[in-house]
Amino acid sequence: QSALTQPASLSGSPGQSITISCTGTSTDVGIFNYVSWHQQYPGRAPKLMIYDVTNRPSGVSDRFSGSKSGNTASLTISGLQAEDEADYYCSSYTTYRSWVFGGGTKLTVL
Amino acid sequence: QITLKESGPTLVKPTQTLTLTCTFSGFSLNSIGVGVGWIRQPPGKALEWLALIYWNDDERYRPSLKSRLSITKGTSKNQVVLTMTNMDPVDTATYYCVHRLELSGSVLDPSGWFDPWGQGTLVTVSS
């Protein structure tokens, strides 16, 4: 069971849109619609941003959206803001009755 | 308001057994759909899912660590205990306790989330 694949880093300017990809396999992302995204600031616990591929918890900005195609899930942040600078992790349920996280993406707002 | 807090040793020696306790409030582990899990993060590295226990005592483990892990409900109704045997320096990490909710109320349909998380506790493995 390998970690999901995310780009190590991404950057964007304020106001721009960015998309973080999360690639898995037919034993996780490809077969289940149980992909979540968490945001983590340095030294802090992660915070849920998206669950079940596309759903936003109450209180999360609608600038955050999720999608999936085949074995790849994506998190899109529109209207990038300085406060969005953080690490982002995807995760998925797997056929092994367990969960797997991605390697994380460090987002820099230029 | 749901809160969770991890407690346990900050330093363990190689080959020793680690025991961590998660003490939570704001929810019941007897409620259908509810679970408590453990997730760790080595310094500067990615999150790693470890284990989960559900309201119905269903236990789940990271396949590669299954032989070393045990998750149980504590003697207090608001506690969950994680045990990891044969600790190694590579197990040095911040260990997080996290609330899990299955919206369907069924472990067969894990449509839900890991949220919120505890503040985490750093465990260092060193002789």
Brief descriptors of the model:
heterodimer; A: 110 residues; mainly beta; 3-stranded antiparallel sheet; 44% strand; globular; B: 127 residues; 7-stranded mixed sheet; 4-stranded antiparallel sheet; 0% helix; 51% strand
SS content category of chain A:
mainly beta
Task: Please tell me the overall pLDDT of chain A.
Answer: 97
Largest interface: A-B, 26 and 23 residues
- The share of residues in helices of chain A is under 10%
N-to-C CA distance of chain B: 40 Å
Number of strands of chain B: 11
Compute the number of strand runs of chain A. Answer: 9
- Low-pLDDT stretches of chain A are none
Output the structural class of chain B.
Answer: mainly beta
Q: Helix-strand pattern of chain B, N to C?
A: EEEEEEEEEEE
* Global mean pLDDT of chain B: 96
Helix count from the secondary structure assignment of chain B: 0
Instruction: Output the number of helix runs of chain A.
Output: 0
**Which stretches of chain B are low in confidence, meaning pLDDT under 50 for 5 or more residues running?**
none
Overall helicity of chain B? under 10%
Oligomer: heterodimer
Distance between the termini of chain A: 35 Å
What would you call the shape of chain B? globular
Radius of gyration of chain A: 13 Å
